[in-house]
Write a structure and sequence with these properties.
By secondary structure, this protein is α+β, with helices and mostly antiparallel strands. The chain contains seven helices and three strands, in the order ααββαβαααα. It has a three-stranded antiparallel beta sheet with strand order 1-2-3.
Length: about 140
Amino acid sequence: MNDAFSVPQEDTAAAAIEEIEAELGLFDDWMERYQYIIEMGRKLPSFPEEWQDDVHRVPGCQSQVWLEAEERDGKLFFAGASDAAIVQGLVGLLLRVYSGRSREEILQTSPSFLHDMGLVKALSTNRGNGVEAMAQAIRKRASI
């Protein structure tokens, strides 16, 4: 497997969501949370330059966002990147939830957690739409 793909830290998508919520809850305001999310993006595996093309681009994002998926042992692993720091962090957050999961678990994990955490509301409208477009792209790939 290519080193670009994210490997899950938690056993399930639900556990990843709980952990992210707890981590974001440690911060008093959204500026600190943004910094934490940006750090998540910096920890993502390197995304190959040859994948930074229109084939891998996620439509509906203001920034450029690219995704790639690979199936292994019945699980989908995702690689992703963006040209904007905060969006790269949001990619990292989504991959922490969805990468390395079965198609069934991905499809059963609604992206509503993005609203529940207040994340979509805290972002600009375009960024909020973009993170939802990323989540939909991941779920669409799982439904193929």
